[in-house]
Design brief:
This protein is α+β, with helices and mostly antiparallel strands and about 120 residues long. The termini are far apart.
């Protein structure tokens, strides 16, 4: 997992996904042959995480946790392009974060899940 700034994640997004915009998290499948399977690389924008945390009123650390979980779920095959898939993925994120030190507040998903 790597934490970068907005400029770096925008460059990666443009280079590998042909999208010239900033994003919060990228996940790259690094499946390689060998005795152990490397799942992939998750890259998170600290700048975007900070803005998003402030917008929903949670700590930057909690927002970073969410983004890492989100990226790992993408590597595990989860998708969020369709509303139903996104809802299921965000529910799984909640389950995973609920098993962490302390449950994440519902506002962390503000704007991600329909009411």
């Amino acid at each position: 997992m790597s934490v970068v700034g907005d400029r770096a994640i925008r460059r990666l997004n443009a280079r590998y996904l042909q999208s010239h915009r900033t994003t919060d998290v990228l996940a790259f499948d690094l499946d390689a042959p060998g005795p152990t399977r490397l799942l992939g690389e998750v890259i998170v924008s600290a700048d975007t995480a900070s803005r998003q945390a402030k917008r929903v009123g949670v700590s930057v650390a909690l927002e970073l946790d969410l983004l890492v979980v989100h990226g790992v779920l993408h590597l595990a095959g989860w998708d969020d392009h369709e509303p139903r898939e996104a809802r299921l993925m965000h529910e799984r994120e909640r389950e995973i974060l609920a098993g962490a030190r302390r449950p994440a507040p519902a506002r962390l998903w503000s704007g991600l899940l329909e009411a």
